[in-house]
Design brief:
Length: 243
């Protein structure tokens, strides 16, 4: 079942020596540098549209932080299309929407441990009718505030910016935002709009991850079994991107 998706998406755990894992470790290092002051530790992943790779990147980054020994919390805040329960093979229910709405919420089992030591997941929970409203609630802000001191790093997997407002609501509550773009799919103008929209809501953008780069054209000739899936994550991250 979920096992296949797990294998596809959390490559950094299953194949730590791969080029993909190396890219995520590089992204981790860059983020560590950019967050070194002021006890910054909450990162939001978002993108312009659906299916650009936000959840895969969030899961892999969470894995490399945890594998480095950091106490890591991954929150699936995409209550419309959440997948982190599948990526980590845990129960979807009793997740974020249940906590925020206080419907079907139990303290026990809310923080879900994974097969990766140091990595805990809060799943998206039951699909609610009003995700944006739930994310605007004081309960979400308080959840982040309360657990910031307990975890070394909190990674939030968000919804895309252009179709829905969820990530715009979350943007001012996090320390850094990583925008994911899919190579050959995401338009430059849309990326600019995403950047402006997030910044106008008070978000601090750390950089861009260019995902779905074809390993055959990116200069990496050896890529083993993932090559045919076009899964060469190329983590591009630079201050230049902010301009
Ligand atoms: N680099 C990649 N190469 C090939 N497939 C990828 C890559 N990154 C993600 N995918 C696949 O693309 C699909 C969408 O990925 P993912 O769920 O990470 O995107 P998303 O932006 O979170 O989507 P959504 O908007 O639905 O939340 C998944 O099936 C995933 O396995
Ligand atoms: Mg997703």
């Amino acid at each position: 079942m979920e096992n296949n998706e797990y294998k596809n998406n959390v490559i950094s755990f299953l194949n730590p020596k791969s080029i993909v894992s190396e890219s995520f470790r590089a992204l981790r290092t860059n983020l560590e540098f950019s967050m070194s002051q002021d006890n910054k530790k909450v990162i939001l992943f978002t993108s312009s549209h659906v299916s650009e790779g936000k959840s895969s990147c969030a899961a892999n980054l969470a894995a490399v932080f945890a594998m480095q020994g950091k106490k890591t919390l991954l929150i699936d805040a995409d209550m419309r299309r959440g997948v982190q329960h599948k990526n980590f093979g845990v129960e979807k229910q009793n997740g974020l929407s249940n906590f925020l709405s206080n419907v079907g919420f139990k303290t026990q089992g809310f923080f879900k441990p994974t097969d990766i030591s140091n990595l805990v997941v809060i799943t998206c929970g039951t699909t609610p009718p009003n995700p944006a409203e739930l994310l605007s609630s004081h309960r979400f802000k308080k959840l982040l505030e309360d657990y910031k001191s307990f975890y070394d790093i909190i990674i939030i997997d968000g919804a895309p910016v252009l179709p829905v407002t969820d990530s715009v609501i979350v943007a001012p509550l996090v320390d850094k935002i990583v925008i994911v773009a899919a190579y050959g799919e995401t338009h430059k103008d849309e990326l600019k709009l995403v950047k402006t929209t997030l910044e106008n809501s008070g978000g601090d953008i750390a950089g861009l991850v260019l995902n779905k780069v074809d390993s055959r054209t990116s200069g990496y000739s050896k890529y083993g079994k993932y090559r045919k899936y076009n899964s060469n994550y190329y983590a591009y991250y630079s201050n230049e991107e902010k301009k």
